[in-house]
Amino acid sequence: MTGQESALPFGDGLGDRRGDPLDEAATARATISADAVVTSWNEGARRLLGHLPAEVVGRDAAALLAEELSPEDVRAAAALPRWSGTLTLRHRDGRTVPVRLLAHRGAPSADGPGDWLLVSALPGPGEGTGDTEDVTKDVAEDVIGQAEDDALLALASQQAPCPVAIYDRLLRLRKINDHMAQVIGLPEEEIRGLRLSEIGGKLESEDLERNMAEVLRTGERRNVETYRRVGAETRAHAWSARLAPLKTPDGEVHGVCLAAHDITEQYRARQRLLLLSESSVRIGTTLDVTRTAQELADVGVPGLADFVSVDLLEPRGHNEGAEGAESVEGAEGIGEPPPGPPAGPVVLRRAAHQSVLPGAPEAVVKLGQVDTYPEYSPQAASLAAGRPIIHRETDAAIRRWAAESAARAATLRTYGFHSMMSVPIRARGVTLGVAAFSRHSRPEPFTEDDVLLAEEITARAAVCLDNARRFTRERDTALALQRSLLPQTLPRPTALDIAFRYQPAGTYAGVGGDWFDVIPLSGARVALVVGDVVGHGIQASATMGRLRTAVRTLADVDLPPDELLTHLDDLVIHLSAEGGAGTPTGDVGATCLYAVYDPVAGRCSLARAGHPPPVLVALDGTASAVHAPAGPPLGVGGLPFEAVEFDVPEGVVLALYTDGLIGGRGRDLDDGLAALTAALAHPAPSLEAGCDSVLRTLLPEHGASDDVALLLARTRGLDASRVATWDVPDDPALVARARRDVTDRLLAWGLDEAVFTTELVVSELVTNAMRHAAEPIQLRLIYDHTLICEVSDGSNTAPHLRRARVFDEGGRGLLLVAQLCRRWGSRHSATGKTIWAEQALPSL
């Protein structure tokens, strides 16, 4: 053997078969059928036992055995898919050879069970094959084999495919391979003897060292994942560190072996999946456009970017904004976005942004602000292209965009933006806006994998934004309808001081059907109404409008409260029948409270149809619910309503409301009513302040779950000196005296200008009562903000206007009254009727 040959790690003591790593003869192989017949025999088998293939193939395999096997052992081995052990075989020259065998059962075929494959490694140097060999040759081959093992071990320790480091029982570094030296960035001789925390100098290193100490203490393996940058690389790597104890044969731990595996791609894929899963949970928790946009920005930071902005396209008709223009508070741009991808400069409103820095100081555009983006800006470019685009800070378009705004250029320079990615927000074929992802704190630029991730997150958010936009638009439509059906302003009658509040339900509860009204009646009386239609949405609002109109119409007829509710009940049943092919379905239901206050008599009469009772705040400040029969809700039919009448001193407050004020959020209505009476008992400087105090006390900060209507009315009596009443006997000769009495009273009140008209009205009404009705006849003047003339009689016959013919001697009286007065009418009572006429007072 030459010196050059001896330097080779593998030598030449193993013959030519060492030159071919896939030499079939290096292993003894044979196959045996299920019925124990040899079916193949390779060269390695010949070298092991000396038999030629022609001598054994097709013969019984038992002939090769040098020992007896029991039938039980054979059956047990045959039942296994794999068997291993040592058998004593017969050599061709008659010797016995102990052989380590591994047997595999082959796959079954159509012909029957598969063959058994028997394999055995041929003896290595020094092990012998049973041949008589020279002792000197055996020793030489032992030396060559040990040298080969040592050479392989040395190469493996240095060139292992993963980074490996060996630490002693004091956790001092003793050995690293070449791959670990590359990972650390330092050669072994410079760090040998240092601890891991001293080499790494980072929190991840200290955590790894703590785990290594546990391996030393317990003698058990551990796996630890860490995420850190490698040397001067800009991209962080994820590592799986496998820590194994190094034990002596007696089990004593002498050190720790650390093998690191780069799992960066798996880690990043897992992080992307986690971020996608997180986006599904965190985005779209509400149906609010701004909130959803903010959730998109929050998900993107810090998982994907250091700064994320979400800008939405201005709806058609809202493009008047320009750069720097402030938005109207609460504006969200919920109209219909322009069709197709926008081209050229685009007007966007900043809906949300988020940053890894507190307060997002990088934001040039404020939340809610409208800005115009030129066609070469990242946002406009991606919108025009209809796909995500990655930009570097060195791009000419970015430099041009920054040059047009000193603030933007300063921000890019100050925070070191180096990579930007713009992703269009599109859903259901509509472009809603653009999400811009930027990096300045982490050094690595965006990659194509980041684009796919951002596109997926943005696509999910786009659907949520479109849902929120559609919901907001529908809700605004319903709210607009609801507001149009509610009174825009309330009359200010002399008899009452009025304050009211109407608060729609929270954003997600749906528009309801609550309403309220104040209706002036004849005789200076005032009707107060509150009602609540069952359900939510546009249908409830439309039904509310119909019922409010019906109440006003019935109030003009001057029906008593219980009769008015009876007619209203019939209307609700009719509305329900409209949706049920003529049969009431019960889908339309409502509650209502109708109260009439008479300042002249100082009394109030009311009836309620399933509605909560009003609360009366007395002069001493005590508050209590008015005891009145609840009555059935409107739409039940067939059940009567009952009215109550009670005295109302001047200065008391009557509170009418809907159940949204005292119910909802799991609160019992009785508890809510008690809370309302307690809130009303607290003195307030005005009715307006009282309304605010009640809402503040009873409603949660995040909004009520149902619509809330509150109506506060403080009574004001009419001075007795402003009311004049005369009993008129049924004698036409006394009509003149009635005119004189009225004239005297008007002059005493200083209403000289009203004398002539009033004389005509009184003369006509009193004459008609004498001619067409029965006693008792009573004349009453009421001096309020208008002048009211009333004539009551004992007849229930209602008067009506008619057009008199040319030669008729009468029939023109009521027509004359209608022409002279602002309005006139009649109302019925238990004893008859009252004809009234109301005049405006020019001097007032």
Structure explained in plain terms:
Helices cover 33% and strands 25% of the residues. The chain contains 22 helices and 31 strands. Strands 13-12-11-16-15-14 form a six-stranded antiparallel beta sheet, with helices on both faces. Strands 2-1-5-4-3 form a five-stranded antiparallel beta sheet. The chain has a five-stranded antiparallel beta sheet with strand order 7-6-10-9-8, with helices on both faces. Helix 11 runs antiparallel to helix 15 (448-485), helix 16 (538-556) runs antiparallel to helix 17 (561-578) and helix 20 (735-749) packs antiparallel against helix 21.
Number of helices: 22
Structural class: alpha+beta
Uncertain ranges: 1-19, 129-139, 318-333, 804-810
Gross morphology is elongated
User: Sheet bearing the most strands, described?
Assistant: 6 strands, antiparallel
- How far the N terminus sits from the C terminus, by CA atoms, comes to 136 Å
Strand residues, percent: 25-35%
Q: What layout of secondary structure does this protein have?
A:
Layout: H1 3-6, E1 27-32, E2 38-41, H2 43-49, H3 53-56, H4 71-78, E3 82-90, E4 96-105, E5 116-121, H5 135-159, E6 164-168, E7 173-176, H6 178-184, H7 188-191, H8 196-200, H9 203-218, E8 222-229, E9 236-247, E10 253-262, H10 264-282, H11 289-300, E11 307-313, E12 346-355, E13 370-373, H12 378-385, E14 389-392, H13 396-403, H14 406-415, E15 419-427, E16 430-439, H15 448-485, E17 496-503, E18 513-520, E19 526-533, H16 538-556, H17 561-578, E20 590-598, E21 603-609, E22 615-617, E23 623-625, E24 644-647, E25 653-657, H18 669-681, H19 687-698, E26 708-715, E27 723-728, H20 735-749, H21 755-772, E28 777-783, E29 787-793, H22 813-820, E30 823-828, E31 833-839
Antiparallel strand pairs: 1-2, 1-5, 3-4, 4-5, 6-7, 6-10, 8-9, 9-10, 11-12, 11-16, 12-13, 14-15, 15-16, 17-26, 18-19, 19-20, 20-21, 21-24, 22-23, 22-25, 25-26, 27-28, 28-29, 29-31, 30-31
Helix pairs in contact: 10-11, 10-15, 11-15, 13-14, 15-16, 16-17, 18-19, 20-21, 21-22
